[in-house]
TrEMBL record:
Keywords: Hydrolase. InterPro entries: HAD-like_sf, HAD-SF_hydro_IIIA, HAD_sf, PGPP1/Gep4. One of its GO terms (molecular function) is phosphatidylglycerophosphatase activity. It comes from the Bacteria. This is Haloacid dehalogenase-like hydrolase. It comes from Brochothrix campestris FSL F6-1037.
Length: 173
């Protein structure tokens, strides 16, 4: 059961990951969480480096979709700014939102990477959906109230995972 919380990779930030690195892993589509993965949970606009990263991936033929548990209004605003489709109220770690996002593409699950900053929602949900999971460090150290509970549980899970295997943060895939 614990292995379901183990990401395939751990990277400092999604912005260091290039299209070539994703392609070397066989990735054709990126699903990504929004809050504290791409932007701070309380930011209201997309920063230029997010736009540049998504444009870089799209120019290389890699599709990007935001898969978030947040509201339609919140997710749509950022998704529209960066020009990508989105799934809101994804209900991660359930696979419901991932299934909705998968319907947008004619790819196999092993060709999809899920980026996220939380083990309990993004990684666990992505693993349950049988995606290539990539844990990133949170953009901001503070969290929305509902995420603070998850972070406490996450610390326990990380400690248990470290007993089984060293966890290392990388700069690239």
């Amino acid at each position: 059961m614990l292995k379901m919380f183990l990401p395939n990779r751990m990277v400092h930030t999604p912005y260091d990951i290039t299209a070539d690195q994703l392609k070397q892993q066989g990735i054709k589509v990126v699903f990504t969480d929004l809050d504290n993965t791409l932007i701070a949970w309380d930011d209201e606009t997309a920063p230029s480096h997010l736009v540049e990263w998504i444009n870089h991936l799209k120019a290389a033929g890699i599709e990007v979709t935001i898969v978030s548990n947040n509201s339609e209004e919140r997710v749509r605003k950022i998704a529209d700014e960066v020009g990508v489709p989105f799934v809101y109220r994804a209900q991660k770690p359930l696979t419901t939102g991932f299934k909705r996002a998968m319907r947008l593409y004619a790819v196999r699950r092993d060709e999809v990477a899920m980026f996220g900053d939380q083990l309990l929602t993004d990684v666990f949900g992505g693993n349950r959906a049988r995606l290539f999971t990539i844990l990133v460090k949170p953009v901001k150290q503070s969290d929305a109230w509902n995420t603070k509970i998850n972070r406490k549980i996450e610390k326990i899970v990380i400690a248990l995972l470290k007993r089984k295997k060293p966890l290392t943060w990388e700069d690239q895939l």
